[in-house]
Predict the structure of Cytochrome C.
Amino acid sequence: MKKLSILSKLLVCSGLVFVGFSAQADEVKGSAAAGNTKVWLCVGCHSIPDYRADYPLVYRVPMLGGQNAAYITTALSEYKKGERKHPTMRSIATSLSDQDMADIGEYYAAQTASSPNNPLK
């Protein structure tokens, strides 16, 4: 009886491990190379030094180069869900897939001061 109890616990634990692996497999992996062709959406505001947007409020638009990929992906996802409020960013984010957001995040995370100029960024 005791052996059966231990065996059932081992089976449950091993099942949970496989569930964890399948959840990780569903995670989207970004590609900086793929993001290279997708950042044209960001150019109008985020590539202009000291740019200040005036709608809906006046604020300084951040430069994205060198920013953490996960932060960019999360921010875009929050704009898409409406958790962050900015009409322009929301409309852009709603047009992006999860893969697009991950690729854009990886692209900007890979940027440094010595990165070659991308005419699309």
